[in-house]
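Q: Hi! Curious about what Polysaccharide biosynthesis protein looks like structurally. Here's the sequence.
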Amino acid sequence: MAAASALGYVFVVVISRALGPADYGGFSAFNSIGLVLAIPAGAFQVVYARRVARRGPPAFDLRLPLLVGSAVCLLTVVLSPALAHVTRVDSLLAPVLVGLGLPPLILNGALMGGLLGMRRIGTLSLAYVAIGTSRVLAALAASALGLGLTGALAVVTLASYVMAGTLWWLCRAEAHLEWSAPRGDRGAVFRTLYRSNSAIGVLMALTTVDVVLARYLLPPVESGEYALVSTLGRSPIWVTQFLALALIPTLATSGSPRTILRASGLVLGVCAVGTAVAAAAPEFWVGLLGGQAYSAAADLLLPYLALGTLLALAQVLVIAEMAQGRHVLTKVAWCAVAVEIILCLAFFHDSAIQVLTAAMVAAGLVVVVGLGELLFAARPAPASSAEPALAEPVIFSRTGPVDT
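A: Let's find out. The predicted structure is below.
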């Protein structure tokens, strides 16, 4: 996972320099949209890990992820004119390529879940590294060939299909296309996917919608600068994600608010240290990631790290609630995303800092409500042993800043 995260930053270094701020803003917006549309990949990973671990290879059926991937692809293609408008690109081919890249991403989730269920941890680790490496190679190819936004999306999509084929080959002895689960189990799979997707989706939306809004509302170059800084600014989420994972088994049995508050305090401390390091030389970190073309965005780094800190706290609070089988904060977070969109479209749309301010309001709302639940509400009852697994997709769905 650490290697995959590092490769994600290498990918950003290469592709941001190859495209320049104007095209990179569009590329980052499309990848943010793709992340949200590919949410089922994370849910499939956990569902298939549980099913294959419990039932063995007969449960390793690939028809459902292929069906879902095809449906999401078709939906994206149908919506391509709207997506092209939102991302301010002239070609419909770019959003179509995003849609075509979704089936292998969703299939990869099921395949990696199968590897986890079969306890092939070494192979799974290599798969994470291979996927990150394939994206870096795609970025290098786009840079060497002098490709623009559409060309870069094309080579990244091609890399996704290559990796899906590679993962299928690794699982070819166990994976199949025949649904062999009992009929009642099919309903359980669909219910788990639905609830997991909602939980994953709200965290994805909170961490990516501002990049899409920046692309829609700001000039192309400024949106690209915003997108690059967002990659650095969201680093608190990746760095503290292990704390959210550690909360799941503890809260499943105790449901202790003190545990959540201690974890939140630790997250705040880690983020404060990272922000202090960045504050010493923000121009250096922005230049290191994107080069001189993005130097004007250095002033955004510290405010974005404040947003990243709020998002890291929101991540812990949402996952902690899900670990107890509760979903109130998930609903609040969806409302916060809606508030962010309304604020940007109606009021905060004249500069990057205004878009960032709206994102901070949304993330802050989730944090305030989540902490309020802990400090003032009654202690929640522990959930049954079957519930915590619904929180796990959040962890598996993100492997660092692979896309933006």
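A: A fun detail: Residues 383-400 have pLDDT under 50 and may be disordered.
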